[in-house]
Design goal:
five-stranded mixed sheet, alpha+beta
Length: 649
């Protein structure tokens, strides 16, 4: 029988109290230089960076295992022996120190042992078990309707219904209106425990022939096989499946969804917080935190020019420079942006050294806010740990902050130097530049989700969800040679037959916007002969102009090239593809002629509205859209990416 997450975490909390007796860190004992007191104040530093700093201070040679080198930590410590800091770091991440030797080079190596690896896998499995329970409860209700022939009608509005729940109800309606989908639900509920475990391992489970359940066969007699798989989403899992013979081109469907259940961590957090409340060192009163300060509304002076007073095709909307986006770590004391942003000031005020696992994920909008009044350190820590799902514990003289979501969220982390580089380029824009968008989409599945979740905190971009829709198209584009990219930019096609096998695999993923393709035509080994990739840029039509200064959005204008001409065409005489292309090209030529003047007028107006800003610091961006078109035989799929393009002025 599997161990529960609660027992694993409680065991970890109890066994780490005696830091000096832990054999996992015994290799640190007696190492010259580690007695030296060091002072560190680090936020979101990789373990590699932490060890480099300690090595520079002490001379001891320290190396992290590659698998954990980029995991992030936040540390505040003042005049403490380096050995204690390294021991606390290992305890916080459940890692081990050992002596290693490569050739004539000897060093201390920090690594994750098999026990910790197994515990992380178990946490994933606990997530999965909770999700399976949700799947069963939802689909049992759906299955009863399918068996009785009842058609479910989902609510048409989200009044008093969470969006995720409304999505599940819409899926239930879809299932009960279709025989083959109903048969899929009936078949899923007949899967064995072993098949359920295969789903957790990421396998596709196929049931065919005589193994198909009788009630599923009765509902859809034509079925020869059913396939099921589970994929992770931003907030949970998606149950998907397909049926043979194919009834629709895509040959797959979403059956239902389930959300991660994080309330089950509350007992672990409560147990840790009860211990903190008894700690005399945490009874210190802390200064009152600042309350949230909302940016004042953008002024709308009577002298603000109207669109016709500036120039045709340009609708100018003045913005106050104070309507700024938050910068990383700028959350107020009452609502810290991350656990570390709240924890490090407490540690410094109380004079208690702290090591914390760092996660970029910000507390949800619905999460309870920490109080703005002065409270004791233990109380403030308790509120933060509940808000961000951390267990904060004593480890000798140190406080350790361990994320109970680490197993799920750590793979979403993006290196801080990468984030900072992106911030200098796109903060204040609503969309990334094309190059940054390609780089974002080229990262791992988890990192793309982390970017989407944190985009408004990192860059002020309100929504980068389109990255998920064209993620694999971006990954494919990133593998192309400069010559191939140039051919696409000129309107050419890249035949799939010229792509390498790995690129062809990504092509199918991009075609389906899925990690695990199942498109029937892709089973034909000759499919690349009928497939190709092309790129279409929307140009300037219908875009926006944005002015940015000092990573702040200070101006906005709406471009509307050709809108009158397009709407003048009678709806009863739709344009042919050739006419649409000719109109698009004509509008593009018109835009290219008029854009320089519009941009200059826009920039001058922004400078006039903000005399405190130097004109030299104002950058102008145009919002555009590029479409990745993937053609496979007679079918095609288009993935649009909105991006910001810098416009000289």
């Amino acid at each position: 029988m599997h161990r529960t997450l609660l027992s694993i975490v409680l065991a970890a909390l109890s066994c780490s109290a005696f830091a000096g007796e832990d054999p996992r860190t015994a290799a640190l004992d007696g190492v010259p230089g580690l007695d030296k007191p060091i002072t560190l104040s680090l936020r979101a530093a990789s373990i590699r960076e932490v060890l480099d700093k300690v090595e520079a201070e002490t001379g001891a040679r320290l190396r992290p295992e590659r698998e954990i080198a980029e995991d992030k930590a936040s540390i505040w410590v003042k005049d403490r022996p380096a050995r204690d800091v390294l021991r606390a770091l290992a305890h916080c991440f459940n890692l081990c120190w050992t002596e290693s030797e490569v050739g004539s080079s000897r060093f201390l190596r920090l690594y994750m042992d098999r026990k910790t690896q197994a515990e992380l896998r178990q946490r994933h499995y606990d997530d999965y078990l909770a999700v399976l329970d949700q799947f069963d409860k939802q689909l049992q209700v759906t299955a009863d309707m399918v068996r009785s022939g009842q058609t479910y009608e989902a609510p048409r509005s989200a009044v008093n219904i969470p969006r995720d729940e409304l999505d599940r109800l819409w899926l239930r309606e879809r299932v009960t209106r279709s025989n083959y989908l109903g048969a899929m639900v009936l078949q899923y509920l007949k899967l064995s425990e072993l098949q359920q475990k295969d789903l957790f391992e990421g396998k596709v489970v196929t049931v065919s022939g005589g193994a198909i359940a009788e009630e599923a066969k009765d509902k859809y007699p034509e079925a020869t096989s059913f396939s099921f798989w589970i994929e992770r989403s931003l907030a949970g899992y998606l149950l998907q499946g397909s049926v043979q013979p194919v009834l629709q081109p895509w040959d797959w469907t979403l059956i239902t969804t389930a959300l991660f259940d994080d309330a089950r961590y509350d007992k672990v957090i409560q147990s840790a917080n009860e211990a903190l409340a008894k700690d005399p060192a945490l009874g210190k009163e802390l200064p009152a935190t600042k309350t949230d300060e909302k940016a004042p509304a953008a002024p709308t002076p009577e002298s603000a020019p109207k669109a016709t007073e500036i120039v045709s095709h340009l609708m100018y909307m003045p913005m106050s420079v104070t309507s700024a986006v938050p910068r990383p770590g700028e959350g107020s004391g009452a609502t810290p942006a991350t656990m570390s942003d709240g924890l490090l000031p407490i540690a410094e005020a109380a004079g208690i050294p702290v090591v914390a696992q760092y996660l970029s994920e910000y507390a949800g909008a619905d999460a309870p806010k920490s109080p703005s009044t002065g409270v004791k350190a233990a109380q403030r820590l308790a509120e933060l740990s509940q808000l961000h799902k951390f267990a904060v514990e004593r480890d000798g003289d140190f406080l350790l902050a361990k994320s109970l979501l680490w197993h799920r969220l750590s793979d979403r982390e993006v290196p801080e130097e990468t984030i900072k580089r992106w911030q200098k380029t796109i903060t204040g824009l609503r969309f990334p530049t094309f190059d940054v968008g390609v780089e974002m989409g080229s990262m791992s599945w988890g990192q793309v989700r982390g970017i989407i979740n944190n985009s408004r905190y990192w860059f002020g971009a309100s929504n980068l969800a389109m990255l998920a829709q064209c993620e694999y198209a971006l990954k494919l584009y990133a593998t192309l040679t400069p010559a191939q990219r140039q051919a696409l930019s000129r309107g050419g096609e890249i035949p799939a037959s010229t792509l390498k096998p790995e690129q062809q695999r990504i092509f199918i993923q991009a075609f389906e916007v899925r990690a695990r393709p199942s498109y029937a035509k892709a089973q034909d080994p000759g499919w690349p002969r009928t497939a190709a990739l092309s790129l279409t840029d929307s140009g300037w039509s219908g875009g926006m102009l944005l002015a940015v200064s000092g990573m702040r959005n200070v101006g906005l204008a709406n471009l509307s090239f050709g809108q009158t001409e397009q709407y003048a065409v009678p709806p009863e005489t739709p344009l042919t593809p050739e006419q649409r292309q000719e109109l698009r090209e004509r509008l593009q030529r018109q835009a290219e002629q008029e854009i320089p003047g519009l941009v200059r007028t826009f920039a001058e107006q922004v400078a006039k509205d903000h005399p405190e800003i130097s004109q030299k610091s104002i950058e102008i961006y145009a919002e555009r859209t590029v479409e990745f078109r993937l053609r496979l035989g007679e079918d095609d799929h288009t993935s649009p990416l909105a991006y910001a393009s810098n416009v000289p002025w």
